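Contributing new records

If you add data, match the layout below exactly. Sequence lines come first and carry their own label; structure lines follow with theirs. Keep one chain per record. Anything else will be rejected by the validation script.
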Amino acid sequence: MNTPRYITTTLPYVNAEPHIGHTQEFVQTDCLARYWRLLGHEVFFNTGTDEHGQKIAQIADELGQPRQEYVDQYAATFENLRDALNLSYDNFIRTTDDAHKAAAQELWKRCEAAGDIYKKSYTGLYCVGCEVFYKADELDENNCCLIHKKPVEEVAEENYFFRLSRYQDQLVAYLEDESRTPTKWARLWTLEFAKGGLDDISISRHVSRMDWGVPVPGDDQHVMYVWFDALTNYISTLGWPDESPDGNFQKFWVDGTTVQLAGKDQMRFQSLIWQAMLLSADLPQTDVIQYHGFINIDGQKISKSIGNVISPYEVVTRYGTDATRYILLRHMHPTDDSDLTWDKMDEWYTANLVNGLGNLTARIMKMAETHLDVPIDKPAAAGFDAEYTDALDSYNFQAASDYVWSKVQALDETIAETEPFKLVKTDKEAALVIIKQLVHDLYIIARMLHPLMPEANIIIKEAVLANKKPENLFGRLDS
């Protein structure tokens, strides 16, 4: 039975333009959304931008730029990825949207009504880059954040706290269910972290120190901690707190299957804090959270300071939209860290797209256009091979892509073995049988490309049905 499917990226923080690391998650999520729609499911695909917090306030203030103007500028660079990457999302939510802010305040009220929010004085070690309080044993020997490699600040103030500790047992049970967190290393790390004891967390900042955020209901001297605000997007995008029977929240979050994709730096936020917030508000937890690794550039973490940032717009300009999606889905590992260089991308593009899929399409359709009087009958709709569907059902985009390219290779081998372009001169009837089968099988490959490379999917299918060789799918790179 086809059921509603909800899928979301995490929301990137808009303190800089998008880089290729963000792009991997967007393309993975889009691939799943397209695949599920192809199977007949009703899908809601969410993405957007996280726009509050101390980091953004500091940068905008240093630039002398109004904060809303600053986030508008960078949010646009993420929203424009829709066209650049051919993303099929249903909503692009911004945490500065009024409806989202109202939803965050309603979630706060529900957690407060459950007895899970209280106020206390606190002294902690705070990383501005992460916007997170850390324990001393979570820092390096120089008292620096392990992610940003910068010293943390000791902060003392009175804040509102959320009783994360109250939900430790339920969170451990959630993480012990392997189906909820398919990425094994992420599940085990988060499970061990939860079993080690969960402390209550600060969820507000006094406006004297940070005033760029959603106001705390009933206390205009505090704004919400950026994570409490931002995490609410996963349901505010569905119109929550509207819980009407015919609304999107009921359809997709309550009655549907919910899937979140996230990077490995998100584990404590998505699998612990967000799930505890849902429990506190008496809302269903996320069904599945799928984690992926980072993209490194030539063996180094992406970093503006060392200048190795690759823009997705640069990649699209060089290779095109479909080729960029191909690189991210087939050549980046679905769960572990991957390494990327321009040389590698050039090699993958030329070998597997220009000389692979592109050349195969041109050869087959040239033979068809020359020797077939009419197009073949459109292949009947049929299910996909289990190896392909099993890969996508388990979030293994690499294996699904490899399966498609095994079919590309198989057709190349068939052409090499049967040489229909020669056989047509001595046994035309036999050659036409081979050519028709090649065209049929090319169409089946195009169907499997739909979630991966939607433009190629359309071009190849239209070429088959018109019995005409298309323009080159992938142009050769300039030397």
